[in-house]
C-alpha cells in the first residue's frame, strides 16, 4: 500500500520531529492565508444556500481546510520518502558515534561565551556613547566645508 511507512522502526525521533516542525509551519501558512483572504467578498457566506444555516462555511474556510489536508498529505509523503528516511537513519547512526563533551565543559564554555558577549556589548555601548558625545561637541553641519574650505 502507498501509505505504509518506509522502515517504520528506524529514525522515529527525527522523522517525527521533522513532521511536527513541517506541520507547524504548514499550520502557520494556512492560518496566514485564511487571514489574508479575510476581505469582504470572502467573508460573505456563499455556501449557506447549499449547506443550510447550520453549516456557514465560507470559501476561505473551505480553501484553508483543503490546503491543510493536501499539504498535510504532502508532509506525510515527504517524511516517508525512502531517500529522506535513509538520510535520517544515517544521521541518527552518525550522531550515536559522536563523543559529546561532558556537562561541566559545556557549562564553562557557555559561561565564557556569555561573558565575552556582554563585555563586547559594553565596549560597543561605550564607544557608541563616546561617538555620540563627540557628535554633539563638534559642529558636524559645516565640518567638511570648514576642513576643505568650501
What does this entry look like structurally?
The chain has helices at residues 12-36, 40-43, 48-51, 59-79, 82-97, 103-137, 143-148. With 150 residues, it is mainly alpha-helical. It is flat and about 80 Å long.
What is the topological layout?
Layout: H1 12-36, H2 40-43, H3 48-51, H4 59-79, H5 82-97, H6 103-137, H7 143-148
Mean pLDDT: 81
Helix coverage percent of residues? over 70%
Query: Please, what is the oligomeric state?
Result: single chain
Helix/strand-derived category reads mainly alpha
Give the number of DSSP strands. Answer: 0
Q: First CA to last CA: what distance?
A: 83 Å
Count of separate structural domains: 2
Shape: flat
Beta-strand portion reads under 5%
Rg over CA atoms: 29 Å
Contiguous uncertain segments of 5+ residues: none
Major sheet summary line:
none
Tally of alpha and pi helices: 7
Following the backbone from N to C, one meets helices and strands in this order, namely HHHHHHH
